[in-house]
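quick one
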Amino acid sequence: MLNEQINKELFSSHLYLSMCSYFLEKELDGFANFFRVQAQEELFHANKQFDYIHHAGGKITMMAVAQPQTDFDSTLQAFEVTLKHERSVSQSINDLAKQAISEDDYATHAFLQWFLTEQVEEEALVNNLLAKLRMIGDNTSALYLLNTELAQRSFTPPGK
Ligand code: FEO
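structure w/ MU-OXO-diiron:
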């Protein structure tokens, strides 16, 4: 299940790079930056799980990463897809935590706590941006301001 989770994180990274390219095409560089940073975070998640499997004495198995959606109807729709996707990832981490408990694997359960908290934060962030985008509606000046705000985001590995 942890190997499958690595694959889900890598797929998430693919999906967010795909969204990054969608926003680059629209010249919304701040939104593109937001999704590039998202993609980097997902690679960090995959690597964290990768190392954990090794440290716990498991066998790492890399799998093919599926092709993500390559086009989106609108800025709002890209964020709706993101929220739906993050909810499915949260469900997947919850399932992992449940399985760890059922196998009396408390070390893995402890390892998963970081991801459970991270998912709450990710969903809250996307929910917040969705609410802002709904407020913005067709107001291009407001969209421009949000684009400028999102251009400031950068990737900092947690714990650094
Ligand atoms: Fe690694 Fe966005 O969940």
